[in-house]
Design goal:
It is built from 10 helices and 11 strands. With 259 residues, it is α/β, with parallel strands linked by helices. Strands 5-6-4-7-3-8 form a 6-stranded mixed sheet, with helices on both faces. Strands 1-9-2-11-10 form a 5-stranded antiparallel sheet, sandwiched between helices. Helix 2 crosses helix 3 and helix 4 crosses helix 9. It is elongated, with a radius of gyration of 20 Å.
Length: 259
């Protein structure tokens, strides 16, 4: 998925003696943090929440955000079948909803934060058939937005939350079966970090090369077969690093906070 990006960076950083771009896949946050801290990895791209965890343990520096799909900031959409009788999030008490996975920004963290701020008590469940208390909301992981959508359409769960881009791609026929219950604030897709102690000239060149992808004369580069582009964190969009840190801390997810 990320090799085209590594190749493009290497091809444009020859002045620093770089000729080959390689991708290293870490089994967990702890390993990636140690690779960045030791200099075994120079650039790291991941969801804001995993990126925040890696930043905390490696002192890596966030430099850009990465967008693919339609290129715009995304948010999470809560939805249910239109014949379910559900109209608001409070109707989900005593029910189980489908979420993507624990590391997903729009498929887990933003929905969880939104529900917590709405006063919901969230409890992870092992299966859609697990019992749920009347004053709690259960959630189960589907591991893919498309799975979440299909689980709701087929009635496996009464509701779900997915990325707004994924929701917009649902066919018109299937959309007619669904009702939107709520939407969250927006957040960036993924963050780009560089290792601590990196030469300032190299870091600035990495930023320049990434910002040029897909813009004007810049070459098209893909991640997961989708064209990607990079933008700065700007106050105008509200997608600042400080905001991401705040949301990360509010999430209360021990799984992602601890390596």
């Amino acid at each position: 998925a990320y090799q085209p990006l590594a190749d493009y960076l290497a091809a444009n950083l020859g002045e620093f003696g770089i000729g080959i771009g390689s991708v290293k896949i870490a089994p967990d946050i702890e390993t990636m943090s140690s690779w960045l801290a030791s200099g075994k990895v120079d650039v790291y791209v991941d969801t804001p929440y995993r990126a925040m965890a890696v930043t905390m343990y490696s002192d890596a520096e966030p430099i850009l955000r990465c967008s693919n799909g339609d290129g715009s900031p995304h948010h999470a959409v809560f939805f249910a079948r239109s014949d379910s009788g559900l109209t608001t999030l409070s109707d989900l008490n005593g029910q189980i909803i489908a979420l993507e996975h624990v590391g997903s920004t729009t498929g887990f963290f933003l929905p969880v934060i939104h529900l917590q701020e709405s006063g919901m008590k969230l409890v992870e469940k092992a299966s859609p058939e697990s019992p749920v208390g009347a004053n709690e909301m259960g959630y189960i992981f589907t591991h893919d937005d498309q799975n979440t959508i299909q689980w709701v359409i087929s009635g496996k769960t009464v509701a779900g939350a997915v990325d707004s881009y994924s929701f917009a791609q649902i066919s018109q026929d299937d959309r007619m079966q669904l009702i939107v219950l709520a939407e969250t604030e927006t957040a960036p897709g993924e963050m780009v970090l560089t290792r601590r102690g990196m030469d300032l000239g190299l870091r600035r060149s990495i930023e320049r090369v990434l910002l040029g992808i897909g813009n004007g004369a810049g070459q098209t580069v893909t991640i997961r077969s989708e064209p990607v582009h990079f933008v700065e964190f700007t106050g105008e969009t509200g997608l600042s690093v400080s905001l991401i840190e705040e949301v990360y801390e509010k999430s209360g997810c021990e799984t992602c906070h601890a390596p």
